[in-house]
Write a structure and sequence with these properties.
InterPro entries: Bact_solute-bd_prot1, SBP. With 445 residues, this protein is an alpha/beta fold. 42% of the residues lie in helices and 14% in strands. The strands form three sheets. Strands 7, 8, 9, 10, 11 and 13 form a six-stranded mixed sheet that branches. A five-stranded mixed sheet has the order 4-3-5-12-6. Helix 20 packs antiparallel against helix 21 (434-442).
Amino acid sequence: MESTTSNGGRTFSRRWVLGAGATTLVAAGTAGLTACGSSGGSGGGGTLTAFVYGDDAAKIQVAAIDRFNSSAAAKKAKGRIKLEKVPGSEYPAKLRTAMGSPNAPDVFFNWGGGSIKAYRDAGQLVDLTDAIKSDPVLKSGFLPSVITAGGIGGHDYGIPMRGMQPVILFYNKSLFAEQKLQPPTTWDQLLDINTKLRKAGITPFALGGADIWPELMWLEYLVDRIGGPQVFDRIKNGDASGWGDPAVLEAARTVRQLIDDGAFGKGFNSVAYTNGGAPAVFAKGKAAMHLMGSWEYSTQLGKFPDFARKSLGWTAFPTVGGGAGDIRNVVGNPTNYWSVNARTSNKDAALAFLRDCASETYAKALIANGDIPTTTNAEKLLDASPNPEFAKFQYKMVQQAPAFTLSWDQAVDPDVSTPMLTEVNKLFVGKSTPSQFVSALQGLK
């Protein structure tokens, strides 16, 4: 499932590509996957094939490949890249089929984490850890938290190639001013704001519970703030006992407290983000805050431009008293990645191409397309962004993050993702208790 919002010609792909009922992208390596990979590279000899998700943003990759193919680096590596744009709805199935055939791509677009785990397990990926450490361009070219977030088990398998999408706490500046409120930096402040807003007849938070993945964002941040990023790191790396960490239970209890206190109002389970319901609740002042990915800005600008320009505010998710997590830690979608097929005929050419993603030219193209690059050179370029203030906030948020946790439904094993989302929804709608939630997750293998 994919949903997009167009804004001034810019199409924004949403994180719910991997949301509830749409985990096929994560599953893109489980069925019919073999270790045969590409026999000598799909292009054979000097031409390598790259698969990319064929949305509007693919034009940046088209330009990058044209630039590389005419470069001295391509000549030195004796290789060229041929790009194949695969329609979004077809991407997971086509990639899965291709990776199990002699016609596998040499380089391919992915979401990191769980979306490439099956390929890693089948020995089909180049481990880029040492290549990044030994190459000055790759080592210093990208924000470290983003490189790490796309890896598995402490090893790097991807090079960032699109924009960042952190989850941000958005708030209605006009409504906050009317109620004499300041955005919360601590959990106690957030609870105090909840109480004041409910007394004023305002729902504290918009929530598109019908999609389930917006609910997941709350647990992702709470587990981080309570237990630190290492709690989910254990789970992501295959240790199901990590679900039994006290931070997971405490996060589930905290969520239930919010729901019972009316933080999300009534009927949030029938409100969706994908059909514009939750953004409308927020923009029309019926809810004061919205925890959502950075694409919320473009959504509001497209649907409610006056609200976006005059009243939309943003801040970090607050700290939790006594918790181990740093307020600078971020959750969400770090970016998309290029990974390299272990059976490529020309690894040097593939790596030479990946270096272009760290270039200023590539970063400028992303910014012109409305994205925030994950390169270390991007900050000085953000004045050219459609909204420099918001762009710089996002960039610094990720730049300063000690840890960037990949969205759980993308990070976990494909067999875990869908039942995990089911359990999240059961917790939110009251069909399971926090302890039952933890027990159910511990049973997911």
